[in-house]
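Priority: low. Protein: histidine kinase. Input follows.
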Amino acid sequence: LSRRVPQPAGQDEIAQLARTANETLDRLERAVARQRQFASDASHELRTPIAGLRANLEDASMHPDDNDLPAVVTSALRDTDRLESIVTDLLLLARIGTGGTSVQEPIDLGALAEAEVRRRAFALKITTEAVRGVRVRGVRMQLVRLLGNLLDNAERYADSSIKVEVTRADGLALLTVTDDGAGIAPGDRERVFERFTRLDTARSRGAGGTGLGLAIVREIAQVHGGTIRIEDHAAGARFALRLPLE
Ligand code: ADP
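Result:
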C-alpha cells in the first residue's frame, strides 16, 4: 500500500492517471491508518473496565466470606454496565453507514424534536421552538438518536437551561441544541466529534460517557447528507445540524 506509481512529468493523460492513482492510494492509506487507530483506541477503552471487573472477581473469589462482598458486586456491575454501553455504541457506529434494514421516510423535524423533548423528563429548563413543516428524508430511529445524544450532553453540561430550535435556513433544515454551560473552546470543536475524545474538564471526567456520543452524531448527520457543527454562541455550547430539505 505504501508503494506509489512513478509520476511522469507533464499534464498528459498518463501523468493525470498516475496522479489520480497515487491520490487514491494516499486516501486508502489514511483510511487504513484511521481504522487501525480506532481498533487500538477501542481496545484500550475496553481494557479499563475489564481490568476493574477482573480485580473485583479476584477479590470476591479470594475472600468469599468478606462482608464487603455486596460492594464488590456493585462495583463489578458498574464495570459491566460500562462494557455494555461501549460495545452498544461501537455496534451502532459500525451499523449506521451500512444502511441495512433502516427505512428512509419523510420526517417533520420540528415534530420529531418536540416529541423527543417531551419524552424526556428534564430536571433542567428546556424550551423548544420548532417551525412546523420543516421536512427532511431520513431514518427516524437514527435522527432520534442523534438528537438524543445532543440532549444527553446538553443535560450533562448545561448550568440551568437548554434550548432546541428547528427552522429553515439558506434552503436547509436547521436544528440547534444550545445550552448555557461552559461551552467548547474553538480549538476543540473539531476533535470532540472524533471517537473517544473527552475533553479534560472536571465535568467530562465525572460524566462517565463513552466518548462515542458525538462520533455517532456526526456519522448519522453524514449518512443523511448533512453537517453538524459547533457554532459561536454568547455562553455555552451550540450544536447546529443542517440537513437537506425533502
Ligand atoms: P461523552 O460520552 O464523553 O459525552 P461525546 O462524544 O458525547 O462523549 O462528547 C465528547 C466530549 O465533548 C465530552 O466528553 C465533553 O468534553 C465535550 N462536550 C460534549 N457536549 C458538550 C456540551 N454541550 N458542553 C460542553 N462540552 C461538551
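Residues 5 and 196 are 36 Å apart (CA to CA). Strands lie at 105-108, 125-130, 135-138, 161-169, 172-179, 227-231, 238-244.
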